[in-house]
Inverse folding.
């Protein structure tokens, strides 16, 4: 039964960066105890060590994970998906299969899973580890209403669930899945600038990180246009507009757009 989030048994095939971030977010938020999470990976010894930290059940075989779980998250690198699905293809029928693999959409899973298997393609991001993630989901899926409700109840506790058309999933992945790397570079750069102007590094990072979190929260909670948020900080002839002008001169917006273009192969 998967009628409530707390009764779910959740499996991970692959327990690397993304799977651990999801498990960490669920366990540390209290959304799901580690004892209800099952995982397998390429190297069992390494898995045991990471699973133990979260109280997650480590399994040697993918089949054991599938048998123990209502929801099975496919969290291996995209090129390995077919290889890990093939031996458990029949066992996955009747489960809810959640993909987190980049570039693997509804049509792909229809072609490799047993007919009638319930599945959903998603792209999460690593801030899900601290309950502030994004899970971009393809609008087209084949979960039952009950499975969908349980999925949203569970992951909605640690992430914004955003539904997008299949052809936009890779763009959503570039913005929200790759975005943490860009945001981390911005954070590091602000830290370097603070240090250049004599702030202790730890202080500079804390100030910059809290500022980024607060700015994001302000936008999410008010829906205010980013341009209006920028204008609200720029008084005429003031200091902030001088910084904004320097960023524009150096092509800040263009650099960010170029980064997404590079991922999308544009
Ligand atoms: N990282 C991100 O920010 C991010 C964001 C969105 C989506 N994703 C997606 O998440 C997926 C995983 O990425 P990742 O960054 O977590 O990769 P990762 O850290 O390299 O983890 C991959 C996991 O797969 C395991 N694995 C390898 N071969 C296996 C097999 N035959 N059977 C079972 N498990 C096997 C690995 O185990 P061993 O290490 O023991 O070999 C490891 O636990 C990818 O499809 C990626 O597109 C990642």
């Amino acid at each position: 039964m998967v009628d409530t989030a707390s009764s779910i048994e959740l499996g991970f095939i692959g327990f690397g960066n993304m799977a651990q971030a999801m498990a960490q977010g669920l366990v540390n938020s209290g959304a799901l105890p580690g004892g209800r999470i099952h995982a397998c990976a390429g190297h069992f010894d390494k898995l045991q060590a990471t699973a133990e930290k979260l109280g997650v059940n480590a399994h040697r075989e993918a089949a054991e994970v599938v048998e123990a779980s209502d929801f099975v998250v496919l969290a291996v690198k995209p090129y390995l998906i077919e290889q890990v699905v093939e031996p458990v293809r029949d066992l996955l029928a009747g489960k809810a299969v959640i993909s987190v693999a980049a570039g693997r959409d509804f049509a792909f899973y229809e072609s490799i899973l047993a007919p009638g298997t319930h599945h959903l393609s998603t792209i999460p991001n690593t801030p899900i580890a601290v309950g502030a993630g994004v899970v971009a989901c393809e609008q087209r899926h084949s979960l039952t209403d009950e499975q969908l409700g349980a999925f949203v109840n569970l992951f909605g506790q640690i992430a914004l669930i955003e539904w997008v058309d299949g052809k936009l999933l890779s763009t959503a992945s570039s913005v929200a899945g790759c975005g943490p790397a860009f945001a981390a570079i911005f954070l590091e750069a602000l830290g370097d600038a603070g240090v250049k102007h004599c702030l202790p590094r730890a202080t500079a990072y804390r100030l910059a990180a809290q500022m980024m979190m607060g700015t994001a929260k302000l936008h999410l909670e008010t829906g205010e246009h980013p341009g209006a948020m920028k204008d609200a900080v720029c008084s005429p002839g003031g200091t902030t507009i001088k910084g904004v002008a320097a960023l524009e001169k150096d092509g800040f917006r263009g650099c960010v757009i170029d980064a997404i273009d590079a991922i999308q192969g544009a």
Notes: Residues 174 and 262 are 10 Å apart (CA to CA). Residues 8-163 form a domain with the Rossmann fold fold (CATH 3.40.50.720).
